[in-house]
Structure formats: structure tokens, C-alpha cells
Design goal:
Layout (H helix, E strand, L loop, with lengths): L3 E9 L6 H9 L6 E2 L12 E2 L13 H5 L3 H16 L3 E6 L7 E5 L4 H5 L2 E5 L5 H9 L8 H5 L3 H10 L5 E4 L5 H14 L6 E7 L4 H9 L27 E9 H7 L5 E10 L9 H15 L8 E3 L6 H15 L7 E3 L2 H4 L4 H17 L1 E2 L15 E2 L4 E2 L4 E8 L3 E8 L2
Parallel strand pairs: 6-7, 6-8, 11-12, 11-16, 12-14
Antiparallel strand pairs: 1-9, 1-10, 2-3, 4-5, 8-9, 10-17, 13-15, 16-17
């Protein structure tokens, strides 16, 4: 039986430009939420978002690449660069002049064929919506690169192009579950016999007026004005804070990782994917519970084995209540003892990138025995009572799940094990 592990992680988040710095902030209860700077929001008042800050695109891309690609794809490429460097498959990136790309990877000689025959699966909910909005505002002729650069698949294809990966390539759009789905599908691909490695994750750049107004019209956004506006499970929660970023994981077979002698963050042992088949925006506890059970069945473990749950917990009234009920349905009395926390209390909702980043943080929790907290949780909603962790906590957890749920009732759950 093939065992699938994670050997590299890269991220660009509202916390910072690396996975390591982002995790450090999450483990320290630091919020990445602040005022809108990406577009003119004067008439909206002091509304908040979770923006990627101090992202130097020119350090990675040529001027042409920056013009011909959307920020969501750029976030994905940079996260993939860092993940594959973290995995030990390349030694460094070299600055190159007068080429279409600003940098090129320096492959380790033993792994050139291994990398180039690998795969890339990256999810996104909104794709290149920032570039689409920008183009619609311009009176100039539309760029011939507008269509190819704004497709959901452009994050995966651009990553493959810049890393010279010529194997399996797939873009996934499954609402906010897309990033977790990408990791789950990569896990299944490797389990089925694909040699790997596979880079998988999620990327989003939705901080634009179109997304802000669109989610606002749906009643999904918080009306808060400060960093405490994302309050998962709190009785005063009033919607999510829109965020952006990307996170990419390197998945490969356990034996391959052992042969390379690299660090292993943890093992993926289960994946569940299902539809509520219920409503376009209202979540269904039954569907979410079914997905958790499917993931546990795939992992061949009993509910009582789970020590920790990284909750989807976007901070919406209906969503948090449905997830809490789903957890209680699956785990019964055991739910009172399972640690639960919500990273979105600090990052806001990065859409597909949240599922991928939360998977990465869960792996770090398993590896280092530290659980991230749910901040801003002052008064727990009686309908959301679980074993919430509100301060960073040390615990030798061994098995964890990460939930991701999206509009349309699409659900993805990943199960991780400490190695």
C-alpha cells in the first residue's frame, strides 16, 4: 500500500511571504487582517480585508510575466517555488536576464527527471477576477493575454511552465474547497500509481471591488472595521473577512522521501469529497458530516482516533453552526475532547488558498505539537459548542482532520497523521 507524505510547503499569505513566517504568526495569535488598500473603499467606511503585503513580484518575474499573468497565478508560482525548494528537490533559483522568466530553478542533478515528470494540481475559486475587473475599467484594447491568464488553470500551467514540470497538470475550481480538493486529488493520483512528485494547493487574489460587492450582496461578509472582525463560532460573528494568498504542498511517496533523506511534515491518510445536493449558499450539516465520515473511512480509522480538527469556520452564522453540528454528528460524545481551532480568525477567508494553508498549518501542528488558536472567540455561540482552543497550546497530537466547505454545498476533508 502506497503511503503519501508532504515534504515541502510554500505560502504567500496575509501574514507574510513565506510559509515559515506565516506559521509563526498563526502560532502566535497574530492577525493578518487590516484596512482595504487594494481599491478605493472610502464610501464603504473602515471595512477590513486580509491582503498579502510587501509582495515583491519583480524578485520572481520578468516585466512581461507580470503583465501577462494575474496575481493569483503569481502567488501560486511563488508558493510552488518555495515548496519545491523546501522539499530539497532544487538547490536554488537563479536570476536570469533577457528570458521570458526572471528566475529559473537549479535542479539537483539526481532529481531532474523526477521533477520534470511530476505533476501540478492547483485550485482556485475566482481565478483571474482581479485582471478581469481591471480590464473592464480600461478603455484601451483588451490584452491578448487576458483570456489565458485569467482561467483557473493558469495557476497550474504557469507553475508547470516555470518549473519545467511536463507531467500531470490540472486546475480545479470547486469554490472555497478547491485548495483542499487539489491536495486530495493529488493524494489519490499518487495512491493510484503516479510516480510524482505532485505540487498541490490553492491560490486566490479576490481583493477587488467586484468580489467585495458580490460577497457583500450575498450577505457573506463581515461589516466589522478592525482586526477582530473574523470571529468564528462567536455569538457576535457576522460574516467572513475576504482574504487572499496561496499555499502549495509537495506530495510524494513515503519511500521516495526516505530515499532522498528529506524532512517529512506528515502523512496524508484520507480524503473525503462530496456534495450536499441541498442549496446554493446554505450549508447542510448532513452533507458535511458525510464528507468527514468518508475521509475517516478512506483513512481506515475510527472517529475516536482523531485528536484535532482544523475547522473551516469562516465566521458566518449558518456556516459555523452547520460545521459544529456536523462534527458532533460524526464524533458524538468524543467531540467534547477533540481540540478545534480556526485559522481564518487570523487570515480571513482566502477562499481556496485557505484550505491549502490550513492543511499546511495542520501538518505543522502535528510535527511540532503546537495547536493554533481561534482568536476573537470571546462568547461561544451555544449552537457551536466544541472544545475550542483560544490560545496557542502544546499537545502531542497524532491524527488530525482539516475541513473545507464551499458555496454550492461542495465539501472536502483531509486526514493527516504524524510520521
Amino acid at each position: 500500500m502506497k503511503r503519501i507524505v508532504v515534504t515541502g510547503i510554500g505560502a504567500v499569505t496575509p501574514f507574510g511571504g513565506t510559509f515559515e513566517s506565516s506559521c509563526s504568526s498563526a502560532f502566535s495569535s497574530i492577525s493578518g487582517i487590516g484596512q482595504v488598500t487594494r481599491f478605493d473603499a472610502k464610501e464603504l467606511g473602515k471595512r477590513v480585508v486580509a491582503e498579502v503585503k510587501n509582495f515583491d513580484r519583480s524578485a520572481y518575474f520578468s516585466d512581461k510575466d507580470m503583465l501577462r499573468s494575474d496575481p493569483f497565478a503569481q502567488y501560486a508560482v511563488v508558493s510552488a517555488f518555495m515548496a519545491i525548494l523546501d522539499s530539497g528537490l532544487i538547490s536554488e533559483f537563479i536570476k536570469v536576464k533577457d528570458l521570458s522568466s526572471a528566475i529559473t530553478p537549479k535542479f539537483k542533478s539526481n532529481f531532474v527527471d523526477y521533477i520534470k515528470s511530476g505533476g501540478v494540481i492547483i485550485g482556485s475559486s475566482r481565478g483571474g477576477i482581479t485582471s478581469i475587473e481591471k480590464s473592464l475599467k480600461n478603455n484601451r484594447r483588451l490584452s491578448p493575454y487576458l483570456m489565458p491568464s485569467t482561467t483557473v488553470s493558469s495557476a497550474a500551467s504557469m507553475t508547470a511552465q516555470m518549473l519545467e514540470i511536463k507531467g500531470y497538470c490540472l486546475g480545479i475550481s470547486n469554490a472555497c474547497a478547491s485548495g483542499a480538493n487539489a491536495i486530495g486529488e493529488a493524494y489519490r493520483l499518487l495512491k493510484s500509481g503516479y510516480q510524482g512528485p505532485v505540487l498541490a494547493g490553492g491560490a486566490e487574489a479576490p481583493i477587488c471591488r467586484l468580489c467585495f460587492d458580490g460577497y457583500g450582496s450575498a450577505g457573506a461578509l463581515s461589516k466589522g472595521h478592525d482586526s477582530t472582525s473574523s470571529r468564528p463560532f462567536d455569538v457576535s460573528r457576522d460574516g467572513f473577512v475576504l482574504g487572499e494568498g496561496a499555499c502549495v504542498l509537495v506530495l510524494e511517496e513515503y519511500e521516495a522521501a526516505l530515499k532522498r533523506g528529506v524532512k517529512i511534515y506528515g502523512e496524508i491518510i484520507g480524503y473525503g469529497n462530496s456534495s450536499d445536493a441541498f442549496h446554493q449558499t446554505k450549508p447542510d450539516p448532513e452533507g458535511e458530516a458525510r464528507t468527514i465520515s468518508l475521509a475517516l473511512d478512506d483513512a481506515k480509522i475510527k472517529p475516536e482516533v482523531v485528536d484535532y480538527i482544523s475547522a473551516h469556520a469562516a465566521s458566518t452564522k449558518l456556516g459555523d453552526k452547520a460545521e459544529a453540528e456536523a462534527i458532533r454528528r460524526v464524533f458524538g460524545n468524543k467531540a467534547a475532547n477533540i481540540f478545534v481551532s480556526a485559522v481564518k480568525s487570523m487570515t480571513g477567508h482566502m477562499l481556496s488558498a485557505s484550505g491549502a494553508f490550513e492543511a499546511g498549518v495542520t501538518l505543522m501542528s502535528l510535527k511540532h505539537g503546537i495547536i493554533t488558536p481561534t482568536i476573537n472567540l470571546k462568547n461561544i455561540d451555544p449552537d457551536c459548542r466544541l472544545n475550542h482552543i483560544t490560545k496557542p497550546m502544546k499537545s502531542d497530537i497524532k491524527t488530525a482532520i482539516s475541513n473545507s466547505f464551499g458555496f454550492g454545498g461542495v465539501n472536502a476533508v483531509l486526514v493527516f497523521k504524524k510520521v
